[in-house]
Amino acid sequence: MLMKSKRRTKKAKKERTNEYIPGLAAFKFDPTEDWDAGKAQNLFETSVSKIKKTDAIRFEDCTLGMSKMPNECVDLVIADPPFGINFSNSEQLYNRDPEYVVSDYHEVDLNYGDFTLSWISKLPRLMKKTSSAYIFSGWNNLEYVLSAARDSGLTLLNHIIWTFQFGAFTQKKFVSSHYHILLYIKDPKAYYYNKIEHYPLDSWDLKRKYSRGESKNSTKLPLELVQKCIDFSSKPGDLVFDPFMGNGTTAVAAKGSYRHYYGFEINKNLKKTIDNNIKSTKLGSIYREYKTLKPTIEELKKKYPRAYKIHNNKEKSEED
Ligand SMILES: C[S@@+](CC[C@H](N)C(=O)[O-])C[C@H]1O[C@@H](n2cnc3c(N)ncnc32)[C@H](O)[C@@H]1O
């Protein structure tokens, strides 16, 4: 009898040590890969590309341009295509001053399904095995993006929802204040993912910047959002490709993070805006070591008091 109850207590103790403690792992978390700024710059300067001239934007239709690119030449794709909704007639609804909106925003000439397949089907040839593609979509034409990517043989890794604080004013329906970001990979066995956060959620709540008195096309993404895609899915020195450069946000985020960029934009009127945006960005200016993004012990203690106690006791007993 005594033996049995001893065994039971032992078992209960073991179960207790294996118990899941929310937040405990966060105290021990480190990013998968991290580079100090010097190392990141060195990787940037020494990387080689199959593309003759990187850090360049070509002003042409991306479907034509992509056909001329070499096989397996890009490490990461960030694609924010026109969503197939008429923005140019709704600048006021979006609370944007038309004076600063660059003319000739290029919507889609073909039907949205054909347009989407025309560029997405070209991605797998250009992507390395390690490569990922973040594709932005509104909700209206999401089905075409999903089916084009599936028909092109890409694998959907995550369906991220980006929520922002304002959308077009509505009278008789909800204001749409989210985008879809579809994270695709070419090879489920080889894709690159740097886990720089302990608990990276697939819902991103990031503010849209409302920049007064700055000329831009009407659909500029926040730099922070593009940087997030770059940080999780590429290394310093990698080549980030954007078929729809718009204001050059991807180029700015890449240059600022010690990554190379390459891409297309059909609207030549955007050249000056893009050039200015890139020129005013210093190489590596937004780069930060990922360990600096970790929450402090004080923040973790506040969020997970029980895990903190256990973590602290463990640390102490390891020191003894
Ligand atoms: C949604 S905006 C991109 C905005 C960009 N992400 C930014 O943050 O500024 C889409 C861009 O794609 C361009 N575009 C449309 N069709 C294109 C095509 N076939 N090839 C290249 N660019 C195209 C439009 O002129 C527009 O600037």
Descriptive account of the structure:
The structure is a single chain. The chain is an alpha/beta fold and 320 residues long. It is built from 12 helices and 8 strands. It has helices at residues 2-17, 24-28, 37-46, 62-67, 112-120, 123-126, 142-151, 223-233, 249-256, 271-279, 297-303, 305-319, and strands spanning 56-58, 74-79, 127-137, 155-163, 178-185, 203-205, 239-242, 260-264. Helix 9 (249-256) links the parallel strand 7 and strand 8. Helix 8 packs across helix 9 and helix 11 (297-303) crosses helix 12 (305-319). The radius of gyration is 23 Å and the shape is globular. The two termini are 36 Å apart. It binds S-adenosylmethionine. S-adenosylmethionine (SAM) binds at residues 61-63, 80-82, 105-106, 217, 219-221, 243-244, 246-247, 249, 264-267.
Summarize it.
This protein is an alpha/beta fold and 320 residues long. It has one domain: Vaccinia Virus protein VP39 (Rossmann fold, 3-Layer(aba) Sandwich), CATH 3.40.50. 34% of the residues lie in helices and 15% in strands.
Keywords:
34% helix, 8-stranded mixed beta sheet, single chain, Rossmann fold, 12 helices, 320 residues, 8 strands, binds S-adenosylmethionine, alpha/beta
